[in-house]
Design brief:
The complex is a heterodimer. A four-stranded mixed beta sheet of chain A has the order 3-2-1-4. By secondary structure, chain A is of the alpha+beta class. Chain A has one domain. In chain A, helix 3 packs antiparallel against helix 4. Helix content of chain A is 55%, strand content 12%. Chain A is elongated, with a radius of gyration of 20 Å. In chain B, helix 1 runs antiparallel to helix 2, helix 3 runs antiparallel to helix 4 and helix 3 crosses helix 5. Chain B folds into two domains: 34 residues; 72 residues. The chains are: A alpha+beta, B mainly alpha. At the A-B interface, helix 3 and helix 4 of A face helix 1, helix 2 and helix 5 of B.
Chain lengths: 130, 117
């Protein structure tokens, strides 16, 4: 089993999104218990620190995750306000639609980051800086 | 959180197909998160403004892309994204173009970049 290790500086930014150990390939979060269990089973385990690119993608996900939390709160407030007024006012409806559109952008922005690991990224042929 | 992370998110945002208004709002959310992290001076607008000024000087896009690549240490794709964004900004009217001191300053600043090309 190959595992990529993300240090606490990154995991502390979004503990609900970013874990410490990620299986490569597949980008699946596992715990220290899983690693110990694999060693107990006699599986070879290789652990390497996350590369700069992987750290940056993890940070990007943490930022988008933080924004998603803000939007969820805004949506809950809008829904709460809508529940007190029947029918839903035009302003509340617009606010809900706006939050929905912003969440959609967040999801689009997160898509290329979700692979997280270098092994899941397409090679940037002909463009060394990207 | 590093500046490069926010920079990359802003670059990604520019290439998403969505209404400009929604994208501006999301950009504001990213910039607010960056500010809370103590990250300021994100380059997107500066990069795009630079491209816009070169477009106003009627520079060919190939030259603009090379200058952007040298100045901001970005790849060709990112450079052309900045140019595309700059194309959506309105340029200086022809009559005012030569009167702007900023264009002269721009020429001085980019002299070294030109030598590199």
């Amino acid at each position: 089993m190959k595992v990529v290790y993300f240090d606490r500086e990154i995991t502390d930014q979004a503990p609900s999104l970013i874990g410490s150990f990620c299986v490569d390939p597949g980008a699946r979060w596992i715990s220290l218990v899983d690693i110990v269990a694999a060693i107990d089973r006699g599986e070879p385990v290789e652990i390497r620190p996350a590369s700069e690119g992987e750290r940056q993608r993890a940070e990007g996900l943490a930022v988008i995750g933080g924004i998603a939390v803000q939007l969820t709160q805004a949506q809950a407030q809008a829904a709460g306000a809508a529940a007190t007024t029947h029918p839903c006012s035009a302003t509340e409806r617009r606010l809900c639609e706006n939050v929905h559109a912003l969440r959609g952008i967040g999801l689009e922005l997160a898509k290329p980051l979700l692979g997280l690991l270098d092994s899941s990224m397409p090679a940037a042929a002909g463009d060394a800086h990207e | 959180m590093r500046k490069a992370t926010y920079q990359q998110l802003l670059d990604g945002l520019a290439s998403i197909a969505a209404s400009e208004d929604t994208k501006r709002q999301f950009e504001e959310l990213i910039r607010r998160s960056a500010a809370l992290d103590g990250v300021t001076g994100l380059e997107r607008s500066e990069r795009v403004q630079f491209a816009r000024r070169l477009l106003d000087l009627h520079q060919p896009r190939t030259i603009i892309s090379k200058r952007l690549m040298v100045r901001y240490e970005i790849g060709r794709t990112q450079a052309y994204k900045a140019i595309n964004e700059a194309l959506q900004l309105s340029g200086f009217p022809d009559g005012n173009r030569t009167q702007t001191g900023s264009n002269e300053a721009l020429d001085e600043r980019t002299l070294n970049e030109s030598r590199l090309l």
